Amino acid sequence: MKRVLPSRKTKTDKPVNSNCIRLLTYTLHLKEVINNKKLLSVLLIFLLFGTLALSQEKNIRIIVESLPGSTPSADTIFVCGNFNNWRINDPDYRLQRQPDGKLFVTIPQNQDTIEFKFSRGDWMKMETNANNSHLPNRQLAGEIKEPVMVRIENWQDIGGQRSLPFYVLILSAAILNGIFLIFLIKRKGQKYDRKKSSRTILWSLFLISILLGAVLFEFANPVWKFRLMLGFETLLFAAAPLALIFLKSFYPTDNTPLALPHWIPALLVFLFNTLRFSGIWRAQWLQSQIISDYFIPDVLLLSLGTILFVAYILSFLYKMPGGKKKKNRGNDIHNSPMFSPEIPDLIITAENKTSQHRLPEWSFLKLGTAINLLAVASGVILFILNESKGFIIQNYQDIPFSIASLQLFVIFYYVYFNESLFLPSKNIHENEPDLELAGKILNFMQTKKPYLDTELTLAGFAERLEIKPHSISKTINDCFNKNFRDFLNEFRVIEFIQKINSGSAKNRTFLYLAHESGFNSKSTFNLAFKKVTGLSPREYFNTKS
């Protein structure tokens, strides 16, 4: 029988410490937890990005490049489709205007294939094709990244048909009349004043461009209507200096040319609207609508342009006869001592004669400025009434444009029936009194008192003023309705009366005082005194006493 030897114990056969077993267990558990956390982190990151992707729903921006010209400006355009269960007038999908004038709308890409159509808020006002036939639903499939550009060809209820507004006929007639007017002025240009004819042509071309834009505005789609309005804003700022140039060619209130600063506002508006038109400048405040389809800059520009135009017109009227007179004591005829209350007003001043010569010019200019102011006033009043919903008039802007068109008919009337208005000033005013020289003569008589010289002659008087004797004699005759000798004697009579009334002439004879006043003989003094006052010297002072 074999003897069984006891087995040899190895290191591995040693009893395992319980702490070591516990440590090993914890280590294995920790490793399992760490692996689970990594997996959990990956899952959480995946879920987070998935949630963000789902929350950021893809949108499609649709831009309408053009609309039918028959689209009513007061109507709102909507888009509907399978993205909103074909709700026809959903306010969330109303088309809005971009700063460049185009309309746009943003719709969600919540379907594999988006179907949609445009309308004006009613199933009977859906879009159709160019022939006004049924248009299938528009479709967009796949991932759309860029804005979708579309064109609306027609409307079901309108069909591209529209009546011709009456005011378009008025504006068209005014435009044709203006073109014929320009040819008429060019044909008679040789005998017309060059400045008047050229500035009349310039103003006529400006009016024609304004009226032509108004006609195009009537037939343009809303996108081009917005662009035409940008052009009108620029022309409105240019209207002020252009109108002043035109008016001053017929009645120059001053001889200074129109400086460059007068044109700076129009230039700035042109640059500003060019940036808006091109879409380069897309500031947020430019896209803010405050009333109807008007953005904040449109309201500001239209308001400032209107104020500027009215200010220029009123400033010209202020300087015309009937406005406030300039105070110039040295040259004002009515400040002459000959208007002393002690004797009758025997002087006929030049203003009455001048007004008779300038009557055609004044009537022409005042009629033109009245038409301009009436057009502006009607436009402002109708705009306020329509925006306040107090008195609604469709296409109310037609009324001020129709009023403004009357200017071309007025100008044509004067060119055809009263062409003397356009002749050079030296021809139509060659017999007109020289007010400036008359004021200079009176100023010299008051300050220098040359009439006290008993030997004063016309030649000597002219030599002192350094003016030709003929010009002085003609001016005195035209402005004061008397010859040079009577003109001097009237001042001498006034001087004599003032000496008597001053109290410093006591114990002085009439003859002595008459000689002191410039008379060289008693007989001349008596005749002149009676001619001026209607009485002899003794009768005059006895009556006064």
Give me some keywords for this one.
545 residues; alpha+beta; 4-stranded mixed β-sheet; 3-stranded antiparallel β-sheet; 18 helices; 11 strands; 54% helix; elongated; disordered N terminus
Describe this structure in words.
Helix content is 54%, strand content 8%. The protein contains 18 helices and eleven strands. The protein has helices spanning 18-55, 166-187, 194-219, 222-248, 264-278, 296-319, 350-357, 359-387, 398-404, 406-417, 425-428, 435-448, 458-465, 469-480, 484-502, 510-516, 522-533, 537-544; strands at residues 59-66, 78-81, 96-97, 103-108, 113-119, 127-128, 138-141, 148-151, 154-155, 289-291, 294-295. The strands form four sheets. The chain has a four-stranded mixed β-sheet. Strands 2-5-7 form a three-stranded antiparallel β-sheet, with no helix packed on it. Helix 2 runs parallel beside helix 9 and helix 12 packs across helix 14. The longest helix has 38 residues, at 18-55. The N and C termini lie far apart (191 Å).
The poorly predicted ranges are 1-16, 50-55, 323-357
The share of residues in extended strands comes to: 5-15%
Counted beta strands: 11
Query: What's the helical proportion of residues?
Result: 40-55%
- Shape from CA axes? elongated
Number of helices: 18
Tell me, rounded to a whole number, the average pLDDT.
78
**Order of secondary-structure elements:** HEEEEEEEEEHHHHEEHHHHHHHHHHHHH
N/C terminus separation:
191 Å
CA gyration radius, whole angstroms = 45 Å
Give the neighbour order of strands across the main sheet: 3-4-1-8
**What structural class do you assign from the helix and strand content?**
alpha+beta
What composes the largest sheet? Answer: 4 strands, mixed
